[in-house]
Amino acid sequence: MAASRPHPSATRTSAHAGLLVLILLLLLPSCQSEEQQPVATVGSKTFTESVILGEVIASAFESQEVPSHHRRQLGGTRFLWNALLGGDIDAYPEYTGTLLEEILAGQRLGGIDDAFSVLDSLGLAASLPLGFNNTYAIGMREDRAEELAIASVSDLRRHPGLRFGFSNEFMDRGDGWPSLRDHYRLPQSDVRGVDHDLAYRGLATGSIDVIDLYSTDAEIDYYGLRVLEDDLNHFPEYRAVILYRKNLLSRISEAGDVLDALSGSISDDRMIAMNRRVKIDGVREREVARAFVRDDLGLEVARVEAGPTRAERIWQRTVEHLVLVGISLGLAIVVAIPLGVVSARRRKLGQVILGIVGVIYTIPSLALLVFMIPLIGIGG
Prior knowledge:
- The chain has helices at residues 8-32, 48-63, 77-86, 96-103, 112-121, 142-148, 168-172, 177-184, 196-205, 219-222, 247-251, 255-262, 268-279, 285-295, 310-345, 347-362, 365-376; strands spanning 40-45, 68-75, 91-95, 124-126, 136-141, 164-167, 191-194, 210-214, 225-228, 240-245.
- Helix 1 runs antiparallel to helix 15 (310-345) and helix 2 crosses helix 14 (285-295).
- The chain is of the alpha/beta class.
- The termini are far apart.
- Mean pLDDT is 84; it is low at 30-35.
- The chain is globular.
- The strands form three sheets. A five-stranded mixed β-sheet has the order 7-6-8-5-9. Strands 3-10-4 form a three-stranded antiparallel β-sheet. A two-stranded parallel ribbon has the order 1-2.
- The chain has 17 helices and ten strands.
């Protein structure tokens, strides 16, 4: 029997799909870019203080009439770091302790000056400290700590049955639970990773006995917690700084003025107060940040506009979803039709193709995304 030939309409469909995908890929970046004036793209991690600081940086740029885009809650430390290295963002708020103990932990650095030298070699830089020290700490409910006579982290060794609930990032990072456990020789085995905000609620309800804290968290005072003394000096200082790409200073002439204005401007108490306004009083991060830039820095910022309505957000996410589905479907068609034609015409090769496809089909989509990150340059 003669081998079947691909139908002309199938070839045209594949070509049309490929052309559609190419057009979408070309149009998407242009839809997101600013042609008239360079944009300062700021990132932030997935916790309140980082979002507030991201909004402060973005608002400071806007006060200089520089368009800014805040990509809020991108992820954890590694996501933000990779996004900065890859140029997906221009700047984001970070902490000196995290820089030394997590990001550059494998460099065997002697101190923060060595870390700044490494940043320089990567085309990055750090601002002067913003003013406050948000170090990690370990906390308990005051009544529970009083009952067990626990005042320091070392005292936890006497109570192996205590239940620990640490933020997910703290469970894995170089200066987190593994090194804390080894440094203090802690015997506890009931240790779970939880969302940082949920950990506070677990502590309040009694389902968790010990959690990790950020020293500028508003919940410490709100829940009446006891911060345990770090008597063996495990945690370093976590001075807040802004990590940024050095080319930001050449692209945006006002960037240097923004960094100078923010240096030393936020005290511990001021940061705690801003965290409280968001987490306890329910004020939007953007409004809190712009009030700080206006009242504390004396910079004029445009009026805070109301956020998009729920219907507008749903519509925006629906359009984004349809575009992403269209791109993935188009790429699948471009690849699948030629492979199908080859498989139909060459049976042995077709069996190999089907075998490979079968193996790929068993891999979870999330695992495939991990392999795709380096290829498509996801930085956050």
